Amino acid sequence: MDSPRKVAVLVGSLRRASWTRKLALALCALAPAPLALAIVEIGELPLYNEDWEGEPPAPVRAFRQAIAAADAVLFVTPEYNRSVPGVLKNAIDVGSRPAGQSAWRGKAGAVISVSRGALGGFGANHHLRQSMVFLDVPMLQMPEAYIGHSPSLFDERGALANESTREFLQRFLDAFGAWIERATPR
Ligand SMILES: Cc1cc2nc3c(=O)[nH]c(=O)nc-3n(C[C@H](O)[C@H](O)[C@H](O)COP(=O)(O)O)c2cc1C
After folding, report:
1. Which residues, listed in sequence order, are joined to residue 75 by a DSSP beta bridge?
2. Torsion angles phi and psi, residue 128, rounded to 5
3. How many A from CA of 23 to the centre of ligand 1?
């Protein structure tokens, strides 16, 4: 059997009790055998500053290496002011430089947006897609994933407790696995 495809999971919220992180952890646990999901942390990254190039800070180097080592990237993000939270946009920018050496190059991608309300973070989902077009990361188109009413999906221990969401995420991960093989053949 082929080795599993490594998927770097980026979470767009730093909040300790983040619903988005709970969903990302559920995805890591649900991943089917052809995929190995692991969260790559973004909270320690400094704000991007082009002055570093030449001697980037250690967390920047470690982040770029972690992305470069993955086959694919899965963004799991809330929406801030109808767009991508700054902390996640910063990670995208950090990974994209220096010019011509983007860590995102050659990856397949997907995005799941999460909201407390009903809308499911549509604005964040599509603003993120816009950046990934420029970074030449082919993004899974279907199924789209807008997860609304996040607090209702988990039990008191923070485990995913909503059966239809679990089934949807399983279908999503299967489709993403097929997309990775198609967009970035071995
Ligand atoms: C600065 C800020 C802006 C927000 N803007 C939106 C928004 O545009 N759309 C939305 O659905 N929720 C918005 N929210 C609410 C977040 O969806 C909510 O705080 C959510 O729980 C954050 O995700 P988390 O639980 O993973 O931290 C915003 C929250 C903050 C702090």
Report:
1. 10, 111
2. -65, -40
3. 15
In the reported structure, the alpha carbon of residue 117 is separated from the centroid of ligand 1 by a whole-number distance in angstroms of 9
At 149, list the tokens.
Answer: 């009413």
Decide whether any atom of ligand 1 lies within 6 Å of the 86 Cβ: no
CB 102 within 8 A of CB 110: no
Query: Closest Cα to residue 135, out of 112, 111, 106?
Result: 106
**Alpha-helical regions (H) of the chain:** 19-30, 58-68, 86-95, 122-134, 163-183
- What token pair was written down for 137? 């990361």
Q: What predicted TM-score, i.e. pTM, was given to this entire model?
A: 0.98
- Helix and strand totals (H; E) in the chain: 5, 5
CA distance 31 to 116: 24
pLDDT digit string, tens, across residues 43-90: 999 999 999 999 999 999 999 999 999 999 999 999 999 999 999 999
Our mutation pick for probing the ligand 1 site, out of 21, 27, 79, counting the most ligand atoms within 8 A of Cβ, is 79
